[in-house]
């Protein structure tokens, strides 16, 4: 059976999926170029292998794996969609004699054997926090794809290898903390390949997440992790630029955030935001739960309301003309959402890798108590329970620092989701308050500063050879 025929079966199956069905089952069928790249990560062997495909879809991943494997290899494919289970069976029967297709949910199947190769492109869907039983207790998961990956890793025989096509979101953030710790303790992280463009890999599947290939194996941690920071789906993976990096250099903090590159040496001398006595919180107003207090005009005893719409470069502006109410009434006073007057660094909670700057920080100085929408993060010098405004110069300096290219590069290394999490920002390398004050004195926040001007100012202040 040729690659073209396998690809045709996949494409016909993809075309038959209605948008409603695709959304219900979270079905993103793997294109042939990515299937070939994923399977190429398995270590070649001249022995027959036992192959497991979790959520097999069209069967393309296990079919390509079986085609590249020694005669006598076997495949178990699990797919809960009855139509796709039949497609998997049809595909696999043409490349492998020993095939078992199980038409059930992955989590309903009790596997009675271990596997040499596990491959999967699981559904990407949030779920309520769930604990999956493991050999050493349990691991909390918050997304179907991590639940699938826990199942896949547990199905590996000693020395077995698993390749998964998954979103990059597991690498950072509090939601995936337990999963990261479990996985990194359970197996060796061998390969990380992050696709450069969100539009190129699953063109007919409308995927918005940043997608990557991950290879792990059931053995002690390998000395070096192969990292493809900007993989392309149109060329053999082995021919593309990559680095071999010790896992320790990719991990950050107790939460074991995984970077795609070692930290820039220019940042090695800085503590974190938390180390500097600062804290990152999320705006307290959830607008759709507080519609009754939103106001398009200022009311007596009311308060200003800030959204991401109020960000104008590095400054927060209020009021602005937009489709968002700019005020709240005094009915909000009893809801514990008002922040004290003073200076802050406000950060948009959402951004995409295609934007010129992943962290959009803006300086805010309010003479009155105000309210921040929960699509904004804000930096202050209090705690998780108590908000204390920043010194004005510190707020200005921090806004400049967070607007620099070196911090943009740092954040791109740790985050592949569209969310800018407060948890991640607390890990951000940050100068001392005295250094932030000096930065504010070097470049006024209200200046129409270009990116190069910001980077050069910071470079001079910290005596870097390069400012960006």
TrEMBL record:
A Pfam family assignment: Eco57I
What EC numbers are recorded for this enzyme?
2.1.1.72
Kindly give the InterPro entries that the UniProt entry links to this protein: DNA_methylase_N6_adenine_CS (IPR002052), MethylTrfase_TaqI-like_dom (IPR011639), N4_N6_ade-DNA_methylase (IPR050953), rRNA_Ade_Mease_Trfase_CS (IPR020596), SAM-dependent_MTases_sf (IPR029063)
Q: Does the keyword Nuclease apply?
A: yes
Q: Name one GO biological process term.
A: DNA modification
Q: SUPFAM superfamilies from the xrefs?
A: S-adenosyl-L-methionine-dependent methyltransferases (SSF53335)
Q: Could you tell me which residue ranges the Type II methyltransferase M.TaqI-like domain spans? A: 105-195
Q: Per its UniProt record, what Gene3D superfamilies does this chain match?
A: Vaccinia Virus protein VP39
Recite the UniProt keywords alphabetically.
Endonuclease, Hydrolase, Methyltransferase, Nuclease, S-adenosyl-L-methionine, Transferase
- List, in alphabetical order, the Gene Ontology terms for molecular function in this entry: endonuclease activity; nucleic acid binding; rRNA (adenine-N6,N6-)-dimethyltransferase activity; site-specific DNA-methyltransferase (adenine-specific) activity
> Which reaction(s) does the protein catalyse, per the Swiss-Prot or TrEMBL entry?
a 2'-deoxyadenosine in DNA + S-adenosyl-L-methionine = an N(6)-methyl-2'-deoxyadenosine in DNA + S-adenosyl-L-homocysteine + H(+)
Q: What class of enzyme is it?
A: transferase
Tell me the protein family, please. Answer: Belongs to the N(4)/N(6)-methyltransferase family.
Its protein name is site-specific DNA-methyltransferase (adenine-specific)
């Amino acid at each position: 059976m040729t690659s073209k025929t396998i690809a045709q079966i996949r494409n016909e199956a993809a075309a038959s999926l209605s948008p409603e069905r695709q959304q219900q089952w979270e079905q993103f069928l793997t294109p042939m170029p990515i299937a070939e790249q994923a399977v190429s990560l398995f270590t070649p062997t001249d022995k027959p292998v036992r192959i497991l495909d979790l959520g097999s879809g069209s069967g393309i991943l296990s079919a390509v794996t079986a085609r590249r494997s020694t005669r006598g290899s076997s495949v178990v494919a699990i797919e809960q969609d009855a139509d796709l289970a039949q497609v998997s069976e049809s595909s696999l029967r043409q490349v492998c004699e020993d095939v078992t297709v199980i038409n059930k949910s992955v989590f309903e199947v009790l596997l009675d054997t271990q596997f040499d190769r596990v491959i999967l492109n699981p559904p990407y869907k949030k779920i309520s926090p769930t604990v999956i039983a493991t050999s050493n207790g349990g691991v909390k998961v918050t997304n179907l794809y991590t639940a699938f990956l826990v199942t896949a890793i547990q199905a590996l025989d000693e020395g077995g290898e698993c390749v998964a096509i998954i979103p990059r979101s597991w690498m950072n953030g509090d939601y995936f903390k337990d999963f990261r710790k479990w996985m990194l303790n359970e197996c060796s992280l061998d390969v990380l390949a992050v696709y450069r463009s969100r539009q190129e890999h699953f063109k007919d599947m409308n995927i918005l997440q940043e997608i990557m290939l991950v290879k792990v194996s059931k053995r002690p941690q390998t000395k070096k992790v192969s990292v493809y920071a900007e993989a392309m789906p149109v060329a053999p993976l082995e021919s593309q630029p990559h680095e071999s990096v010790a896992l320790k250099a990719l991990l950050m903090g107790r939460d074991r955030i995984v970077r795609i590159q070692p930290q820039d040496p220019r940042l090695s001398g800085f503590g974190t935001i938390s180390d500097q006595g600062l804290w990152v919180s999320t705006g307290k107003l959830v607008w759709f739960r507080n519609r009754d207090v939103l106001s398009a005009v200022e009311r007596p005893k009311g308060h200003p309301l800030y959204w991401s719409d109020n960000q104008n470069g590095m400054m927060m502006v209020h009021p602005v003309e937009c489709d968002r109410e700019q005020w709240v009434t005094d009915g909000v006073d009893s809801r514990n959402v008002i922040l004290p007057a003073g200076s802050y660094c406000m950060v948009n909670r959402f951004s995409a890798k295609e934007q010129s700057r992943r962290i959009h920080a803006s300086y805010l100085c309010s003479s009155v108590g105000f309210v921040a929408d929960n699509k904004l993060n804000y930096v202050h010098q209090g705690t998780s329970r108590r908000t204390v405004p920043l010194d004005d110069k510190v707020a200005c300096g921090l806004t400049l620092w967070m607007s620099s290219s070196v911090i943009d590069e740092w954040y791109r290394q740790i985050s592949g989701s569209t969310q800018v999490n407060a948890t991640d920002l607390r890990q951000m390398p940050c100068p001392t308050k005295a250094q932030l004050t000096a930065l504010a004195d070097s470049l006024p926040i209200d200046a129409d500063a270009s990116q190069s001007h910001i980077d050069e100012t910071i470079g001079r202040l910290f005596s870097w050879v390069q400012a960006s």
